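Task: encode each sequence below as structure tokens.

Item 1
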Amino acid sequence: MKRVIVHIDRLVLRGIRPQDRHAIAEGLQAELGRLLEAAGAAERLTHRVDQPRLSIGRIRIGAKAAPGDLGRLTGAAVAGRLAP
């Protein structure tokens, strides 16, 4: 079993209300954890030992979506960019 440690030093969220940041971070953490726990995920990440910056581009979300939804979409985008 391999162990994956993801350290996010800074997450830039433009146009987000400050009071939503914790819900967004929780959604991001939950989705990354779920996706990176999948069988074989750790092995696919071994070539990315140190990724100093990862840009996922824009994420579009509906006006009625909850902050946690934005976190989950962001987590999915990050995991997608980490996968080879």
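Item 2
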Amino acid sequence: MNAEESRKRIGEVGIVPVVRAANSSEAQEAVRAILAGGISIVEITMTVPDAPALITQLAREHTDKLLIGAGTVLTHEQATACLDAGAEFIVSPGLSAPVIAAARARGKLAIPGALTPTEIMAATREGVRLIKIFPCESMGGSKYIKSLHGPFPDLDFIPTGGVSISNAAEYFAAGSFALGIGSELVDLKSLRRGEPQNISDSCRKLAEIVSQRFGPS
């Protein structure tokens, strides 16, 4: 899948679950719960032990069913390892030109993080048009996204950090391209209690919100 195809898929699904876990087994259980809830995208963060090996395993297990990205990618070396493992997109908490270059060299999508207008402008100088806004909720949430669209009407934003079921509709109404949701969706406590269905249920609720984002047809 090339960069534009990944970008389109992310926009269609609308939700990017961010998977952080203590180990590979826990992460795999989270991914299964996400898929069971009808969301076909996951972002495996580099904070998961041996994340590239996990990405390879997930890619083999869920061929054609799951768009797998790597998150919290900080260096060119990490980006290369994740792309070699089978990641289709790369997400960073901030702007790293070497990470963007690594993805671009493979024809894959890089989604850098930014927070301020200055950081967003720096990202556009790297040719980026899809940007993760992190940590968004602490900067004003959906109102902040709406404000950013004033000076940057041609950019697409994925707010992350504090996004949840309770405010997802507000973020879409503010013009968000998609939403990055971590612990508010990927509830490790539920997994550890043996209740992965809680994650699946949350995914279904979010999918319903996504389906309503453009209003009645």
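Check on item 2: The longest strand covers residues 15-19. The beta strands are 15-19, 41-45, 67-71, 89-91, 109-111, 113-114, 130-133, 156-159, 179-181.
End of task.
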